[in-house]
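Quick one: structure for this chain?
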Amino acid sequence: MGIDSLQGGTLKSITVLGGIEGGPGAASGSIASGGNITTAKIGTAANQPADVLKGGEGRMSGTISANGRIGSATLFGSVIGGAGQQSGGIFAIERSDARLDEVPGSIGTLKISGSLTGGTGAQSGRIAIDGGIGLLTVAAVTGGTGIESGSVRTGLGVFGSGDITSMNITTSLAAASTNAGADSASIVAGGRILALSIASNVTEGAIRAADSIGKLSIGGNVESAIVTARGAVAQTTTTDLAIASVTVKGNVTNSQFLAGYSISGADVNPDAQIGTIAVVGNWTASSIAAGVAKGGGDGFGDPLNVKASGSDSETIVSRIASIAIAGTATAAGASAIHAFTAQHIVKMKVGSTVLAFDATPGNQALAVGTAPSNLVAREIPLVG
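Got it. Here's what it folds into:
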């Protein structure tokens, strides 16, 4: 099936009662608009195909795309990437029309009752948006073996915010169990992530924001994952909140929560701050850093850690307002180095133990857990 409008016109309503499947040809099994798509409905609630949108061997096969805005799209079933590059995906692409109007590629509401799953093709099983998205609901995001497969990416264009206003994953975010593709199982916003809820586990997944993360809620365990945010769109005199709040209702293992980092993983903001991080379970071999780079150290918590690169405000102190871990906290052995680190840690509690940080930034390093765990809560100096 193919629908193609090359003149920038709007497709007002699309309804497909069954599923859409791509084949070996480029853009086979695709719906493409040269302009906006107002509404799209694929499958039905009563008859949900297992794979409602499925990529094939051809590039961009099994896809829905608009050169402009997708107002509302509902897919009853799963979106599955194939062997073709960018197969099995949904795309909103910005455009400049003949009147020189700049139209961001954006999505208002996207609901997928099944999973978003990557395939062997690069960027397969992917939602890619040049601008931002209002609401995204999906059962699961699962990476494939292809690079950037099983992923959500906003802010790829020049126009629009790149924000993810609200995203709900009703089960898990996870990489492929074997041969996971680089940057697969990832949620990357070219702007802000205002609210992200994941009902179950995050396993070898990545959550990154080019600006800030508002509220992140994870209902299960976090394992071998990374969460990064650069910082606020606009600083105030004393604040640059990169990550407002994180709640994990399970355990955290071999993971990192980093404020002051770009979506490529570079330390770029020494003023970045974190609000609250609350973990219901145990903390193992994981780190939290705000405005701190490893420097010449072996890991976070090393005395050789330094302020992150980038412009440094004289009035803003990198800060973690609150860390609360209900269970235990360990670094998984004496040789491992992990830490909770910023210029100032306001308060921290592990189990029933309250760490005695004072009100002066940049002058304390407190051991966390019991020997032989090499886990520390360390404030780095304000200067240097």
